[in-house]
Structures
1.
Amino acid sequence: MNLTLTEKFYRSFYKIRRVEEEIIRIYPTDKIKSPVHLSIGQEAVSVGVCQALSSQDVVFGSYRGHAMYLAKGADLKKMIAELYGKKTGCAKGKGGSMHLSAVEKGVMVTSAIVGTTIPVSVGYAYGLKLKKLSACAVSFFGDGAVDEGVFHESMNFAALKKLPILFICENNRYAIHSHQLKRQRYDNIWERVKGYGIFSERIEDGDVFKIYDFAKKYIAKIRKKECGPIFLECLTCRWKEHVGPNDDFHLGYRSKEEVDIWKKKDELIRLRSLLSSKKAERIEKEVEGEVEKAFAYAEKSEFPGEEELLTDLFFEKKQ
């Protein structure tokens, strides 16, 4: 076991988990001005993939993008300030939880509209190919995005052009409250993608090391132009409701038991067991300090002024 890698995994994983737990604690106070789609329970996907990336690689995500943003190394203070609607946020307080960006870290954009960043990531990958760069684009999305027409158009285009892109489907089985098998005839997203001529696999147990190994192997091939697009479907589980900090079992669309199965095999606990108590406690102490400072930063930051209402907008002047 590579303990150095395990430490990196644990630090990233623990940071995401603790940030989400603080969001859950603070959300009822209304200090957070944005709806939140929590990544808690799904951290292994972003941690495993992003640890395999370099600084030149870029990621695109969905509205459930906290884990991806943090795993890629983006600024925690700016993220929390964004959730608070403050001008020091990564989108100047104008985007909220669903619109995170840190271009300097390769976090290009997350979007509130299902599936919209898939074609954008494909376009970016096309640009990488035209410029003959060795970077890789990574597109994160959920199983619900597979129902969108643009998903299929993007798969076809990426395959035809042999683009340098890794598609990551975070399949938590639900598009809001609709189970995958109520929307799709078969539980075989990864197999259907093969029909476009894209190499595809599925990891079912949420093992962060397996996800990392897959990403590392195929990103290296993409950089060397040894292959075109690659697709990975990762089965996972969101522990909380679709949007918000609470549980949702009273709605009846899923059971507490199916979530408990995933909680019992929590990758965060497994990662901690692979480290010495001293190393784990050192990481936890450092992360707790980061989290405390980030929320204090958001609290002290100011809201954007009225002059910001008309900035960062696109408009065409009338002739």
2.
Amino acid sequence: MAILGITLGIAVMILALAVVKGFKSEIREKVRGFSGDIQILKNDLNTSFENSPFSLDPAKLNDLEKDSNIVFVQAFATKPGIIKVNDEVEGVVLKGVDANYNWEALKPVLIAGNPINFKDTFASQKQIIVSQHTAQKLSLKVGDDFLMYFVQEPLRKRKFEIVGIYNLGVEEVDRTYVIGDINLIRRLNNWSVDEVGGYEIRVTDFNQLDELTAQVHDGLDIGLKAYSIKELYPIIFQWLSLLDVNTQVIFILMLAVALINMISALLIMILERTQFIGLLKALGSSNWTIRKIFLYQAGYLIGFGLLLGNLLGVGLAMLQQYTHFIKLDQDSYYMNFVPIELHLSDILLLNLGTLTICLLVMIIPSMLVSKITPLKALRFN
């Protein structure tokens, strides 16, 4: 029972850690791939989906692109519109990008078609990428075309051809955004060629996001502000932070179960060997010498349980990672399967921590040995 408790405990802890890290990594990478890590926007009272235009000093833009902590900087702009097709209408936000847009982050979620081709600057303004949600709702596919109306004075409409369909799995993005050419937004809004709605920045180390956001903001002109992705999608990242709390609760519960089983097993071993303890004491053995015998036995049980638990936990994690046999509702969890992310360092630390805590706690019940006297022990039946 002690071995079983350790086995189940370490297996559940490995799976919990792998699943939580997988969730956080998958969702974070999806959002980062679409919106970058940091966005530079005009600091005004505009709360609409249509960005306020600005121009960034070329020297400062060059400094950002050369910063070793930054992977890339890319321009974008957004403009709301209404799609009318097949007797259906759908409100969306056109996200305009340019020829320097990094498609590598979006390609994994591009389920049909291809990225926008910017080689022909005129044709690119007629190409568009829609989400799978929008395509299914409006019965569209790659190659179809539709009219999009932009509510402004005067009313503008443009015809687009679908060149790609993406499925990010993040509902608030899939329901809202389509991707097109930023030059079209410039023409519709009468912007100059160097005006943009914002800049997306990808950093090398996401763990330093807050510090790098502050660093970027400090280098901007008055009237501009740098926002981290955590500020732009607060609900998603708050939910991800709650997963850490859930993991800690699981760790505490599983460790408690393992410790209770080990303490019970050690007490039973001591009580079953009362005469043996009495004999050793009669022969001159010290309490600590006898206690070490039982601690070694406990260490063997813990070690064997850890071995079986690692085989079970890592085995199930690898099976899920390669087969995705456990499915999820994408509308609720942002993905259609349970993601797994295993790191050898995490597994080693988890095993070392469990072994250390269990052995330290075992010292307390082993103190029962000191309460056993040779005379009573040898007469014990």
3.
Amino acid sequence: MRKIIVIGGGAAGMMAAAAAAGQGCKVVLFEKNEKLGKKLFITGKGRCNLTNDCDMETLFQNVMTNSKFLYSTFYGFDNHAAMEWFEKAGCPLKTERGGRVFPASDHAFDVTAALERQLKKGKADVRLHTAVKRLVADRERIKGVELADGSIEYGDAVILASGGLSYPLTGSDGDGYRMAAEIGHTIKETCPSLVPLTVQEDWCKSLQGLSLKNVKISLCQQGKKPFYEGFGEMLFTHFGVSGPLILSASSYYGKKCKGEKVRLRLDLKPALTPEQMGKRLLRDFEENKNKQFRNALGGLFPSKLIPVMIALSGIDGEKKVHEITKEERTHFAYLIKNMEMTVTGTRGYEEAVITKGGIHVKEVNPSTMESKIQKGLYFAGEVLDVDALTGGYNLQIAWSTGYQAGLSAADAAPAETPGE
């Protein structure tokens, strides 16, 4: 019986192990944590947005890095195939706004449980609390792995699915990059992605906890056109900004100008054109003409935002509305559509959903996920230099690459296990 070793019990590793076990292989899955799918439990605020119910074009459009590399794997096991797989594995699904797919129960546990059932069905040998130290190989092919205790586990093929560097509390420490580099693989520079942004302006701190829905933002370098524009929900924090809209923006920021200062422009009323905004403000001011400026803005902004908008406008909050000049009103209308902040960088891996960078995909066969450098070694998931936007797309990469790696390893492995 062919023996497949899988390093990492996250999304990609569990799928790879389940796929290989489903082909009748003897599968040994090593996971350093006390349980499988530790990172899955916290994705989507504990609900686990496991894929997106979109068409193939949209799926590729949401991949930020090396989308062409994923062509074979996506077509081999796409989002709808993944949905069908989980449904058959006993995890009913539901689709929400933006095509986001969740377990019907709203519990990430059900996603992990479905994967564990398939592992059990395939009689996979799951070894928790077991860390892999290094890959064991000769010039011809992979031989197995050396464990932290110094013992060697031999196998016909090894699937490296150890994740990236994001959420280190879940065990993501970049070990996979080190192991791959030790046998000759190139590691593309890594950085946190889908991560909150830090902002220079102090007034952001006073808005901590304020969530804004249906707003538009753009990011641009000094004197250049915006390199990102998006619409959705954002959140102010003690260090800057976060929320779904910002996480997506961070992926573009990391790719375009990581570490540089850029302008973040916030449109608080994107449904209104600048002309309509001016008319809306004129109407509001007319209705509140005898009130003080600070007491006339309740219909426009959340209460927490009002003092900041007054300060940025330069208009005295005590000033009667009817005393506000046309020039001041025009400037205020512009401010509402163009509230500016200075992005100084991103937060760290502790708050990043994923890691950008990883094993160079030019050294991996896109049809099989097998290493071009070491025969019998396969890769899956976040350890590869592929990443996508929020919405279930990164987990789809894990399912697709994991499934392909599992099938390929099972199909290509020699019949006799070296060392046994």
4.
Amino acid sequence: MFLIGILLVIGTVSIARRLNWPQIHKLDAAWDRARPKIYTYIRNAPATFAYLGVLSITTWVLLGSSDRVARLLLLQDSTSLHQFRIDPIKVLIRSAFWAPGYEFLAWAVLFAVVLAPAERWLGTRRLVTVFASGHVLATLGAATALWLSIRYGWSSKILENTIDVGVSYGFAAVAAIFTFRLPAKWRLGYAVLLVGLAIAALLISQTFTDVGHLFALAIGFAFNPMTRTEQTRSRARTRVWSISSTPTAKN
């Protein structure tokens, strides 16, 4: 359906141009004005948008597969206890490259609003460090919590094969460190909102994934010293979502 929607939009625009509709000229003019800014925004966050590109491909694969095949793909790359026993390194890496279903669209927006400005502020290497640390350490923390819960009879053994893939742990860590990029008057409210949402999700759903999100937030906040370098302080003098022609630093 997503692909059909894109094709319909492209087809409609093509027909409008052939018929010389006045509205299409206004859209073309608006796009010509916005295009340089969009390209600059993407160019200044190379890791963010390269990662988003990979996620778009894996999401396309899932949407084009049958339910059975999609489930098998996710199961083999899930950081479930069963898969951890087979190949922990593989699942820790590959689990971060799936965004099941249409949730990819939400992640695309969140990446553009949070990860992209965070990369421009921290630099590519630091952003990748925070994201990877959040993903790996929160995954290990959630898996440990689940193992203890099963071991002591608080949870069913069937949960050993639960599918756990996605970008949420890494994103949560970056969202947490992003607190220190915001204006001082917004930071406390933003941090309380992040933690409050994570706790509310845990109380409502009571899943080990929600435990992982709390771990990821703690990891992101713990990276606060990374934000105190001269480079990050210099970049923080601009507006959070400003568009600059200056390329993002690697470190």
